[in-house]
Write a structure and sequence with these properties.
- The chain has 139 residues and is α/β, with parallel strands linked by helices.
- Helices cover 49% and strands 17% of the residues.
- Strand 4, helix 5 and strand 5 form a beta-alpha-beta unit.
- 34% of the residues are buried.
């Protein structure tokens, strides 16, 4: 992992396309506020079904996904995204789980479903920049 300055440099390297799936309005605003300093093309959706629909179109460098959402949760959504990538031969888009549940069993379930990484809410700026940097460098 890079230090804070290097992580910032990766985030500022180009206008990365990021899809964020979060059902809670306050959390969406907080996420927007945390990411506002960076030249990201941020698309926000309110549930996993919308994330799957947007994600199928491709073109995202990274996805941030709440685990517990109405209509379709993050575990089901990431599994469908991974299945679609496999069917179409598309490269795996890094998907970072955002959740209040940090139990090791839940983290493991998320990684098995296809999440790249897991961040526990409330999200802190240094945690999200490090996670984004790690995922984007690998992309």
């Amino acid at each position: 992992l890079l230090g804070p300055r290097e992580a910032e440099a990766v985030l500022r390297a180009r206008p990365w396309r990021v899809l964020a799936a979060e059902d809670n309005r306050t959390n969406r605003l907080g996420l927007h506020h945390l990411l506002k300093p960076y030249p990201l093309e941020l698309t926000m959706v309110g549930n996993g079904a919308e994330a799957v629909a947007e994600g199928r179109g491709g073109g995202f460098d990274l996805m941030l996904m709440d685990v517990n959402m109405p209509v379709m949760g993050g575990l089901e959504a990431v599994a469908l995204i991974r299945a679609h990538e496999a069917e179409t031969g598309r490269a795996r888009c890094p998907v970072i789980a955002l959740t209040a549940n940090a139990k090791p069993t839940e983290v493991e379930r998320g990684l098995k479903a296809g999440f790249h990484r897991h961040l526990t809410k409330p999200i802190r700026i240094h945690e999200i920049t490090a996670a984004l940097e790690s995922a984007l460098e690998a992309a």
